[in-house]
Amino acid sequence: MPNVTCPNGHRLQVTDRHIGQTIKCPTCQASFVAEGGGEGFAFEEPEKTEERGSPSRGGKGLLRGLSLAGLVNNFVGKPMLFFGLILVILGRGCDATSLRSVSRSDAQYRQAKVGLQLEWDAKLSAVQQKIEKKSREISESFEGGGKRDEKHLNEMQKEKSELDKELRKLRIEQSSALAEKENGAWKPLRETAMKASNNHRMSIYWYEWLFIFGTVVLVVGVLTQAFTGQGPERWVAYILIAIITFSIYVGGAAWIESIVSSAGSGTTSPVERPAPFPR
User: Fold this and answer.
1) Contact yes or no for 81/233 (Cβ under 8 A)
2) C-alpha dihedral sign at 193, 195, 197, 199
3) Which residues contact 241 (CB under 8 A, 6 or more apart)?
4) Left (φ > 0), alpha (ψ -120 to 50) or beta: where does 54 sit?
5) C-beta of residue 136 within 8 angstroms of C-beta of residue 151
6) For residue 195, how far is the Cα from the chain centroid?
7) DSSP-derived 3-state class of residue 220
8) What is the DSSP letter of 130?
9) Fewest CB within 10 A of the end CB: N or C in the chain?
10) What gap in Å lies between CA 84 and CA 225, rounded to an integer?
11) Whole-structure pTM over 0.85, yes or no?
């Protein structure tokens, strides 16, 4: 197959049917007429002269080839976006996880009390219904127009007094049973719930600072992208700036409510104290 050269010195190998036709060099895209007689003769492809500061010359050439805006974008803007987002997620994620831990510990403590509380409520409710029924019977006997049976009335009042004593006794027994459980089987659960609540109140301060610092880093990274980015990066940064500005100045109440509710969730302990003995 004959060899031809383009006007820029690039060697090409063509078929016989291309001789005398206009062809295009695949290297420099130059068009020329392929002339025969070049078989066995080849021009060396000239070495490509690298421009000063070309990225292909190594790391130093790469740095010289980039503009100042590109350097700031690659080594400041993008890392700050990454680390800022990580810090924001950590701040809010740790806060939410700590709060869920408090709720879980408190729910375990309350769940342990439900069974015994329902049992005593059923006993007290049964006696309370008997007292109300006896009170209605006494009231109806007083309102009746016929002759009163004083003996029967006295018996009903005596029965009501016995029911009142039984109700007070049940309440004292209920308080004793609850106090015994509070100092026995429920004590570890109550201590765990109180410890989780106190830990949340102590750590929420640092979670808020982590969230604020991460937000500042994220905003600086977005601003850097907006001023030094190119093409889609810049427009995405503009959209993020609009969203952040809207959330601060228009939806700022949501930020304040989030911080206040997060801080307020740890100011009061969710664990109830044992009820005192009734007198």
Assistant:
1) no
2) negative
3) 222, 223, 226
4) beta
5) no
6) 23
7) helix
8) H
9) C
10) 13
11) no
